[in-house]
Amino acid sequence: MPVKELWERLGAILTEMLDRYKALLALSKLKREVLVNVKVQELETLVKQEEAIILQVGKLEGLREQTVTEIAQAYRLVPASLTLAKVRELAAAAYAERFAAIDRELGQTLAELTPLNKLNAELIQQSLGFINYNLNLLSQSQAGPTYAPKGQTAPMDASRVLIDRKV
Fold first, then answer.
1. 3-state secondary structure 115-146
2. Domains plus CATH for the chain?
3. Per-residue pLDDT for 146 more than 90?
């Protein structure tokens, strides 16, 4: 494959990856609002969308690695040595500018996404703690005797009954 086509393909892949990371950032901002407002169903929808985007990024990363390997072979370099900075050095000026812009935007997006994901994780942990606390309160019971002497039944403690069985 001609080197020009490899540069074009790499540019398209990096652009798509940037778009996917921006979409993750937007979802993470929504997730923060959903977590604060305790909207469980909306959270489930957002998590599914995030999972889909993460899968897309994984596929794009595979394509990026393949393309970088092909570029390295074309320049007789070791693929692991090709960083985005090195790619910019090798590429023609027009591609180098495009890659530099993508690198800047990707850096900004990831810099914003990282602390937001950390905050969302903390909010999830707090929510889980609150849920567990409430579940413990609801299920707390006085441990009374489970068994009675032979021929007798153990009295039911009213505080242990969560459901009224009257019909």
1. HHHHHHHHHHHHHHHHHHHHHHHHHCCCCCCC
2. 3-137 (1.20.58.300)
3. no
